[in-house]
Amino acid sequence: MNTSATTAIANTASTALSARIRDVQEATRGVTTLYPRSYILQCIKEDRFPDELWQKLGEFGLLGLSVPEEYGGSGGGVLEITALNEALALAGVPTLFLVVTGLGRVPIMRHGTPEQIRKYVTPTCTGEKKLCFAITEPNAGTNSFAMTTLATPDGDGWVLNGQKVFISGARDADYMLVIARTTKAGEVKHRTDGISLFVLDMKTPGIQLTQLNIQVETAERQYMVFFDNVKLPADALIGEAGKGAKLMFEGLNSERLLAAGAAIGLGDYALAKAVAYSKERKPFGKPIGSYQALQHRMAQAKAQIEAARLMTYNAAERFDAGEDAGAHANMAKLLGSQAAVAAVEAALQTHGGYGFDRDYDIITLWPMVRLLEIAPINNEMLLNYIGEHVLGLPKSY
Ligand SMILES: Cc1cc2nc3c(=O)[nH]c(=O)nc-3n(C[C@H](O)[C@H](O)[C@H](O)COP(=O)(O)OP(=O)(O)OC[C@H]3O[C@@H](n4cnc5c(N)ncnc54)[C@H](O)[C@@H]3O)c2cc1C
Q1: Is 139 in the pocket of ligand 1 (CB under 6 A)?
Q2: Which of 61, 82, 116, 362 would staple 112 via disulfide (CB 3.0–4.6 Å)?
Q3: CA nearest to 219, candidates 375, 345, 357, 368
């Protein structure tokens, strides 16, 4: 697959930044050469987790990106793990699990005790353990603060009851970072109060999973998760009880960047397929790529991808520097997901009828890029954020 476009933009960024991105890209190519898109499509067909890919990412030290070396990681920050997600997507191997692992580890690393980091984060660096993330609830939906999953004190620890939905990779995960209320929504002064973060061992009795029938071409399936008197030890709580909202947003900002990385990588992947096809296909004797109706559509998508990429890595740098990267992360995910949709749309148009043949692997990309406009957070909420927090406009909802 042609990745020259990615290299080009890396060269236009600062030398140090481009070297960081390039190093990750090169190492990732070592893995995706062994486990290309055909491998991930086979795993999807067999409904199984891509264990071999995951182990290899661990062996190459890639899963340890963003985790300090003292905790068994490979160092770097959200920028490096975003670059990994982009590089995987660029090879047609997007993984939602990396998004949720990357996001879930952030609050644990920033606010967990050294023991918690060693217990919950360190084994994820080799692939020995996997971490999923659960915030969405059936009734609350986008309005996470309306969640009703409740953890109540129980001896030294807690007992968890409630329900989450759409949880990616819950079947394959060893741990789940659960966002729950420790005080009910109706009993707090401010809706952000009373939220807490817990790491749940998936083997704990009382957890029940129901697989959802979601059509997105990734190896991770989504689950409805029920908690019925699930006992949590004291060390399951990350940070202070009731003060988890800020920690949650730190994680969610990194998730936006990981999602943006996946979007721009997939966009470039689709575009490279469109370019290659449009050079060969000649129904009127000339390559269809020479027709401006198609060429401009591809060029427009490329420009959108590059703009989103600059925004993504700029936001990641800010995040890693400890700045408030909320606005930039939201813009990066908004622009990245729109660029990816534009690229897949261009690829679909370019392929004509063949674009709808699953074997050409264009229509198969569409649900994933369209998903990125809705999850992990819908673009309307990102626009709301920009409207309210960047432009200072009144809240509409
Ligand atoms: C494949 C997949 C994987 C997922 N993985 C996970 C996971 O691992 N963990 C997890 O916790 N969740 C996960 N999710 C859930 C995902 O984050 C939610 O679906 C998403 O945040 C939207 O919530 P909802 O579906 O309840 O939509 P709703 O809240 O019902 O919103 C529906 C639509 O209404 C509009 N809307 C809603 N509120 C507003 C507003 N205030 N202003 C303007 N428009 C608005 C938006 O267009 C939105 O798309 C996943 C979802 C999918 C489909």
Answers
A1: no
A2: 116
A3: 368
